[in-house]
Amino acid sequence: MIGDFDSIAGSKRSLHVQVAREIARKILSGELAQNSIIPSEIDLCEQFGVSRTALREAVKLLTSKGLLKSKPKVGTKVVERAYWNFLDSQLIEWMDGISDNDEFCSQFLGLRGAIEPEACALAARHATIEQRMKLSEIFDKMCDIAKADVFDQEQWTKFDTQFHSLIFNATGNVFYLPFGNILTTMFANFIHHTSEDGSTCIEEHRKIYSAIMAGNSEKARAASAAHLLTVKDKYPA
Amino acid sequence: MIGDFDSIAGSKRSLHVQVAREIARKILSGELAQNSIIPSEIDLCEQFGVSRTALREAVKLLTSKGLLKSKPKVGTKVVERAYWNFLDSQLIEWMDGISDNDEFCSQFLGLRGAIEPEACALAARHATIEQRMKLSEIFDKMCDIAKADVFDQEQWTKFDTQFHSLIFNATGNVFYLPFGNILTTMFANFIHHTSEDGSTCIEEHRKIYSAIMAGNSEKARAASAAHLLTVKDKYPA
DNA sequence: CTATTTTTATACATACTATTTAATAACAAC
DNA sequence: GTTGTTATTAAATAGTATGTATAAAAATAG
User: What is the C-alpha separation between B53 and B6, in angstroms, rounded?
Assistant: First the structure.
């Protein structure tokens, strides 16, 4: 009962989210052009085979992410790309298979390179005791995984994600907070670690970890920047 | 017909957005605690004097921004802060009056300082001809305003916003795109320019502008960083 | 050319059924 | 008795259907 094909409705998520995803992907892929008017509510209801309520909730969801805008009489319009909120985890998930994966990851790295070193610096200064303890826990587990005979890739990704995510949470800056989730989403959907990552990167993580724990923001920033340079090497320009 | 006590009606925006804003502000201010269950749909409908349709659309909107999560039987829960999407323009608008303004702006500057110099560097390399022309237009107008006898603060803010916003659009990186809107929102709602800004900052903007037009990414990055240091001086630690 | 009506899209309301799921009760096994 | 499993129940959201209200563009009357 669980395993059957995604097929149509009754699958995983709620109905309006599925409809929203379908529409979003048509927008993201360009199948629905910017500034164009999408079909009317009743047409879309028929097309997707859902009620107007469900469809309207889907439209509201996409409006909230900057993809659509509705006005009475004129219809629902695809807003221009400049207003799409690419810093929304759900939207990022929906990008899967839309654009070139390497290019997408490379662009993300372009942002990460600017933000994460500063986040590490902030975390070194502002992390609470609880957060430092948690970071310590996570790092210990990463060490265990790196030292193990067989490299557990899934576990590594899990704790690597937690490690970087926690750093954003520890900045004490609300604007850095969302990057933890964005990074988590990227790790889960687009960035595929190779088995060599664990052994090669653990020392880089140790430098970041130590600097944050020592409250040395400059060192944390540098260690993070160095780490990201290593990561960058895996992607084409 | 109904609810003439009217908690919300009579304002400008659509009903479900108004309801969403009300709930969002209660969450953001902590009046609705994290992980707590908010009243049931029917209770909230009564409380706000709106239909279930409007209320559910409001809840969907807030769910999309990471503030709420609904499950049958258990109810609708306030998600923990770490998942709130503070990089959403609408959410940022709703923050007005919630937290200390100076602190909020200061934190924003903490992010801006990390991102904008890199955005300028990217723009110098990737801006299209059209974008360079547009940037030129905008900068010319900023010069006019700065040179004028009476400083038109409103106009200055308008073009200053456009200037910085366009730079993010010109990076050619989808993850930098949303910062244009975020910055626009911050300028419109939180950051209040003083009349001296025009005269003092126009030369700094010229350096950024020139570097981008010349395609000199290193110079653009440095000029932006210098500009942000000047801006930073206005805010307390 | 202006004012007004008509049309047509979304916005909102109401009432209903379906589904999910936590909690509980019933029951069996050890 | 304690435990573990399985129906049952009930309370919340999820979804459907259909109505009216309202806003804005377009047609039309004056």
Answer: 17
H or E stretch at B37: strand B37-38
Nearest residue (CA) to C1' of C19: B72
Backbone phi, then psi, for A70, in 5-degree steps?
-110, 145
Q: Give B106 or A153, the one with higher predicted confidence.
A: B106
* Strand C contact nucleotides, protein CB < 7 Å: 7-16, 18-22
Selection from A95, A96, A71 nearest residue A81 by Cα:
A95
Q: If residue A21 lies in a helix (H) or strand (E), which one and from where to where?
A: helix A15-28
- CB of A206 within 8 A of CB of A98? no
Q: pLDDT tens digits for B102-127? A: 999 999 999 999 999 999 999 999 99
Task: Find out whether B171 and B122 touch, Cβ atoms under 8 Å.
Answer: yes
Q: How many CB atoms lie under 10 A from the CB of residue A158?
A: 18
Indicate the average pLDDT of chain B.
91
Whose CA is closest to B119, among B186, B166, B185, B184? B166
Distance between CA atoms of B142 and A175, rounded to whole angstroms? 29
| CATH fold group of domain B15-89 | Arc Repressor Mutant, subunit A (1.10.10)
Determine the CATH number of domain A15-88: 1.10.10.10
A176·B110 Cβ contact <8 A: yes
pTM above 0.90, yes or no: yes
CA atoms within 13 A on the CB side of A97: 6
Average pLDDT estimate for A144-165: 91
Q: Determine the Cα–Cα distance for residues B195 and B203; give it in Å rounded to an integer.
A: 15
CATH 3.90.380.10 for domain A100-232: no
CA-based nearest residue in chain B for residue A166:
B82
Q: What residue ranges of chain A are covered by domains with CATH 1.20.120.530?
A: 100-232
Q: What percent of chain B has pLDDT over 90?
A: 82
Is the pLDDT at A4 greater than 80? The verdict is no
Residue A41 contacts strand C, CB under 7 A? yes
DSSP conformation letters of B64-90: HTTSEEEETTTEEEEPPGGG--TT-HH
User: Which amino acid is it at B94?
Assistant: W
Q: What is the DSSP letter of A13?
A: S
